[in-house]
Amino acid sequence: MSPTAVTRRGPSDVVGPGTDSPSSWGLGDGQAVPWEYAPAPESRDIVQLQARYGLFVGGKEIAPRSGQWFTTIDPATEEPLAEVARAGVDDVDHAVGVARRAFKRSWGDLPGRERAKYLFRIARILQERSREFAVLETLNGGKPIKESRDVDVPLAAAHFWYYAGWADKLEYAFPNRDPKPLGVAAQVIPWNFPLLMLAWKIAPALAAGNTVVLKPASSTPLSAMLFADVCRQADLPPGVVNIITGPGEIGLALVSHPDVDKVAFTGSTEVGKTIGRAIAGQDKALTLELGGKAANIVFDDAAIDQAIEGVVNGIFFNQGEVCCAGSRLFVQESIAEPFIERLKDRLSTLRVGDPMDKNTDVGAINNAAQLARIDEMIEAGTAEGADIYQPACDLPARGFFARPTLFTNVAQSSRIAQEEIFGPVLSVLTFRTPDEAIEKANNTAYGLSAGVWTEKGSRILSMVKKLRAGVVWANTFNRFDPTSPFGGYKESGYGREGGQHGLLAYLDLDGERH
Ligand code: NDP
């Protein structure tokens, strides 16, 4: 899953009419071809927005009992897109009650092969409506259309395909055990991958026989509401999937509800801790997928071109708003200087701007608060003495945009090397030996992911063993697959999503809870 950022071709790559010689273009050696990309905007016509979206409870869209609504916007233009229900505590109670009844009356006892049919149906509909989902995800989230189109939506569908396959094979997944669903799952998700996080949560929960109440982030509720329409289209029994929108306090009321059996949260470490405290002492299963400060480690024998692309993908994919983003780059000292120069050159080719343009590499930051946080961290980096590099690029006059940023001369102790920024900001540090790389990479409160770039297989294996990170990519980065578990250590949370491990989080294997 590469952000496939566009590289402007040099003269020697250009095939001209009848010749490929730079001189025939009137250019000297090393001169860039003076062309620019024409705008290539994706049409938004495929998305039919409602003026208002209610709560999706019991298979129907209903007005919130709270009687309140809020506006959701396009972060690239700051224009309003629609009004969305602001659930109150009564709405939470109602949704959980509906999910409980659906669990008892239909879904919980439905044979796995029947549950699988619904999941397969959802996967197929997601694929059929993929363009609509991609456009909506970009409109409401700010991410480049080519990423929603090529990454978010296909991966979301892939999760439903994958878990559909497990629904009637749970006894084989966990032999000599007695796998049973937990009951009602409360799921709270963030704004960086709204549809994909929904799929990570809902697909395994349903495959295992649970019903769900999901709360999307306030800034990105629309793809979840479109997913509600997919549930209707798939004839999913009413109440199996319920979606409620509203602020963080509603998320807290949902996970704390006494009739919830399982809580799954993805978001900030701070809110993860709040949730952990809130449900401590309650008999609920809990998985937390929280923040990260991943190390991307480049050795001097790495394939440099690929490593440069991997580093760029690692931090600028989805504007760096990725929990597993490779936000700390460790380069072996012997190649640091030329590597950083090439990295800067590569940054200058990134196209920042309209997320709906198919050529855009870096879109809009999801919300104003997040942009303010990124700006604050950039200021902190400069104030702490690191050297800043930002390629020249014009940012759109409206909307929430941030320049791709690279810091060198970064101290291990500085905020930009320690805190999650969740934006397009890369901190570059150096190392001499593998042991030093390990020590520095592990010097963080987080432990979600890491990357290693080297030609030596034995070095990869030894690094993987010593890096304290849930996922380690070798000679690649930000690669996701529904069959592969994902999750962290330390302040990055606990529990795994994806793969067979992802099912485990939604199952009672020995009848302890029934
Ligand atoms: P949050 O953790 O606040 O939000 C994630 C989800 O939790 C949203 O649905 C949010 O609702 C909800 N929520 C907020 N407060 C509570 C609460 N007390 N109890 C239950 N649910 C709650 O992330 P932010 O959007 O505020 O981002 C802040 C920082 O978190 C970012 O700068 C980034 O560092 C990190 N982050 C990490 C993510 C990851 O994937 N690891 C994802 C998103 C953010 P609402 O949207 O309505 O506030």
Q: Would you write up a description of this structure?
A:
This protein is an alpha/beta fold and 514 residues long. The protein contains 16 helices and 20 strands. The chain has helices spanning 89-105, 112-128, 130-141, 145-166, 170-173, 194-207, 222-233, 248-256, 269-279, 304-316, 333-347, 368-383, 415-418, 434-441, 457-466, 499-504; strands at 52-53, 55-57, 60-62, 68-74, 79-86, 180-181, 184-188, 211-215, 241-243, 262-266, 285-289, 295-298, 328-332, 387-389, 405-408, 425-431, 449-453, 471-474, 493-494, 507-508. The strands form five sheets. The protein has a seven-stranded mixed β-sheet with strand order 14-15-16-13-12-17-18, sandwiched between helices. Strands 9-8-7-10-11-19 form a six-stranded mixed β-sheet, sandwiched between helices. A three-stranded mixed β-sheet has the order 1-5-4, covered by helices on one side. A hairpin with a 2-residue loop joins β2 (55-57) and β3 (60-62). α3 (130-141) packs across α4. The longest helix is centred in the first third of the chain and has 22 residues, at 145-166. The chain is globular. Residues 1-20 have low confidence and may be disordered. NADPH dihydro-nicotinamide-adenine-dinucleotide phosphate is lined by residues 188-192, 215, 217-218, 247-248, 251-252, 255, 266-268, 271, 274-275, 290-291, 323, 370, 373, 420, 422. Residues 188-192, 215, 217-218, 247-248, 251-252, 255, 266-268, 271, 274-275, 290-291, 323, 370, 373, 420, 422 line the site of NADPH dihydro-nicotinamide-adenine-dinucleotide phosphate.
